[in-house]
Amino acid sequence: MSILPWGEDQKRHFIYMQFKAQHEHYQKHYPDALWMVVDVEKMPAGRLYIERWSRELRIIDIALLPDFRAKGIGSSILEDLKVEAMESGKKISIHVEKENPAMSLYLRLGFGIIEDKGIYNLLGWPHPS
């Protein structure tokens, strides 16, 4: 956003409006989802939106602030979800943009591409062989 000739208030308002639109979309399409703040040492580090279905954990959104990336936090969250899925006999799914740098993390942790959705891939764990 640094290339835009906007003041800080305009940038904050734009970001807020984008967040609000995304959150409203998620609430409409995932009405039973849990919306959680990821805390690291009592500091907000990101967010996790997840809906628990009868046979599946759907990760709607997982995001970490830049200062908290590449520190094993995302891996830890995903490993915890894998344990929950194993204990409850469920699978995990998430839509990930193909160019998202975290794609390699998901693949490394055993997620696999289930379906090509255009700019997104639907990933699943465990990946059906």
UniProtKB/TrEMBL annotation:
One of its GO terms (molecular function) is acyltransferase activity, transferring groups other than amino-acyl groups. It comes from the Bacteria. Residues 1-128 form the N-acetyltransferase domain. InterPro entries: Acyl_CoA_acyltransferase, GNAT_dom. Pfam families: Acetyltransf_1. SUPFAM superfamilies: Acyl-CoA N-acyltransferases (Nat) (SSF55729). This is N-acetyltransferase domain-containing protein.
